[in-house]
Sequence to fold (408 residues):
Amino acid sequence: MSSANAFNDALTDHHGETPIDMAELRRYRQGNGATDAALESAVQEVRRLTLAWSDGRTGQFPLMWLRDHCACDQCRHPLTRERLYKLLDDPLWERFATDEALASFEFDDRSLTLTWQDGHVSRFDAGWLHQRCPGHELTTLLPTATPWVEAFTPAHINHADFVGNGDGRSRWASALLRDGLVMLDQGPCELEEVSRIAESIGPMRSTNFGGRFDVRSVPNPNNAAYTAIGLELHTDLPNWRQPPDIQLLYCLENDAEGGESSFADGFAVAEILREENPEAFRVLSETPIDFRFQDDGDDIAVREPVIDLDGDGRPREIRFNNWIRDTLSLPADRIEAWYEAYRAFWQILRRPERRVELTLEPGQMIAFDNRRVLHGRNAFDPNTGKRHLQGTYLDLDMLQSHLRVLSR
Ligand code: OGA
Ligand code: ZN
Ligand code: ZN
Fold:
């Protein structure tokens, strides 16, 4: 199975040894959250092995877990690396609980070899086990979302560095995951450059506006963005059950008067609201309201709260868009309180210290997390010049995937 694992195979450790192939493309020896600490002891206890490494890490590995994670050719498909082994159907199942499942084991500083009662042999790389030691979190390769502080300014990456062989792409992707907003500078003023950039990361996320859309003033608009009017801070497509994650807006022309852009970190603002006005925060996070888009061909609607919280009570998604908000359908005695709460959120969003203002220049592309960061633009005067942006969306999964692959 050696050919299945280009990255770890190519990597020999300080002792010149090749790691055991664990059907895993992420590094598990040296760097990126991997260690070359030596495995120093392996002791069998009731239903588990206790392992200890030279850096002081110790952990208990249930036999059931070890059997489930065997990476041999029969247990993991040698090409897809996906699991073939079915723990739940293993005739040894009852014996994992009685210690009889394991016939023998041996280890050295780099590996652990288990022989099961049915004769199956499982070999583990010590670095791989170290990384996945129960009770220790596997180091994430992705930056965590960090709220904007006052006077936040987005990172700028040059287009040439983004498409080159250096670390421009990882810096761009990391900034986007961390800040939810990043600028690309000095790109070509070419139609579809936004599509090329998007597709180098993942498939464009299509919506009722297509896979890639043009933002400019048109004669028969079906959307406020396709007029010259100002767009207050908003998130796109809150009327979808799954609004697009990442938005890319590529500026091709911007010489009309007006049209300046603004952005605000919705998660940071939600946290301020929680602190300053807990009742408003509660109302906005606990009250689903209706969002809706309608034109000749589509009628796309959903009922969700403005601030959606995850299981730990942290903001997971902001839905805020005044022209996509549908009839406020609530019991009469809750309507005014909802508007009050909505206004309290809006007033924090409007504070200058919470906003980033900038003017997109031709060849610049702004990218942002549409479910976290709100965006807007001032009105522009189409009689004074042209304004043309091309935009598309990406799934966050593909952005995260991109950065994980880059960090191999
Ligand atoms: C949009 C939008 C911003 C702009 O297309 O959804 O918000 O600067 N456009 O025109
Ligand atoms: Zn196996
Ligand atoms: Zn928008």
